[in-house]
Amino acid sequence: MEKTRTDAFPITMDSLERKETICIFGTGDFGRSLGFKMLQCGYSIVFGSRTPRMSSLLPNGADVLSYSEAAQKSDIIIITVHREHYNFLTELTEVLHGKILVDVSNNRKVNQYPESNAEYLAQLVPGAHVVKAFNTISAWALQSGALDASRQVFVCGNDRKAKQRVMDIVRGLGLTPLDKGSLMAASEIENYPLQLFPMWRFPFYLSAALCIFFFLYCVIRDVIYPYVNKNEDSTFRLAISIPNRVFPITALTLLALVYLPGVIAAILQLYRGTKYRRFPDWLDHWMLCRKQLGLMALGFACLHVLYALVIPIRFYVRWRIRNLTVTQSKLGYLTLILCTAHTLVYGGKRFLSPSILRWYLPAAYILALIIPCTVLVIKFILIMPCIDKTLTRIRQGWERNSKHSKSALNAKSDI
């Protein structure tokens, strides 16, 4: 049976710059999707299969050979087969010696084996340089276009040059590589896709901490303080009044935290004069969680809506609700401005009034204004023409200390 290929994906290779040849072992869904994506990005692809004549649905423009023949065509071989089928690689030890083997496999459960799949592969083929990568990208994401956090590819390996070549390929596919160190990190990387909502952990803990902090803060001011000083019982506020105050304050704070990492990233890029240096890990993780933070803010705003519908406490509640329900959109900054402005108007002259202090503690909404006002002030500075012009060029590829800086500054760069 002659091998067949699909023409379902139109590829115009003549318009793309030819890059190095990549070998892919395996013709399953992920192997085909990765091969098609690489062909789109200008790479030459050769598939290795145990039955090359029977392989079907492969992208047009890729060759299909036996494992041994395909391995001789490239120095980089991507293994897209399951761990239980790795034994055939022992027969190719001589052919694979000195080559880069990219392990993309995952397990069905956390810590399924004593060692990671990548470490097991390195033991089977000791003469090869094993690199772990692409296991956090799905075949669907490769076909439809990876977005947001799914653009990030964790990479680890013991050989620095081999790891760097794989990271260059990741960038060539329009994805973002993240160096996780040596091959010892492969177990952590392989467990990552098995975690339940891994990007929600930080937003959830942060939201819970903010909610508890503002709740206790309001309890001290509105329940404990009246009881100690005036012997008034205000415990009825614990059920409705205080939660209805905590929810919008938490929502506003979370909304501000959605945009704060972008502001910090812009400042770092201006300071460094380039976009090609990695952000600190904490900032990188924070930026990846922005969507989740925005959704958490929306959740707290919805709780505020629910409380306001059940018991209409004050007339201004409806206006506060409207300002807090729009997040993570192109109008995000406008939403942040409206929410902050509403809180400022709500506070009015009471901001500076000593009568509002209780045990020298200001109102909770005053604390909620610290982060939003900081973000808006810095953002206003960043959009000033003299700063925005430089920041835009940096994000387009210009580097302050690069030899190409002068041409880019004169708008003659090809980037």
TrEMBL record:
**CC terms in the record's Gene Ontology section:** endosome membrane; plasma membrane
Q: Name one GO biological process term.
A: iron ion transport
Where is the chain membrane-spanning?
204-227, 247-271, 292-311, 331-347, 359-384
User: Looking at the keywords, is Metal-binding present?
Assistant: yes
What the entry lists under Gene3D superfamilies is as follows: NAD(P)-binding Rossmann-like Domain (3.40.50.720)
Q: Where would you find this protein in the cell?
A: Endosome membrane
Q: Which UniProt keywords apply?
A: Copper, Endosome, FAD, Flavoprotein, Heme, Ion transport, Iron, Iron transport, Membrane, Metal-binding, Oxidoreductase, Transmembrane, Transmembrane helix, Transport
What this protein needs as a cofactor is:
heme b; FAD
Q: What is its main location?
A: membrane
Q: Which reaction does it catalyse?
A: 2 Cu(+) + NADP(+) + H(+) = 2 Cu(2+) + NADPH; 2 Fe(2+) + NADP(+) + H(+) = 2 Fe(3+) + NADPH
Family membership noted in the UniProt record: Belongs to the STEAP family.
Spell out the protein name for this chain.
Metalloreductase STEAP4
Task: Report the source organism.
Answer: Tupaia chinensis (Chinese tree shrew)
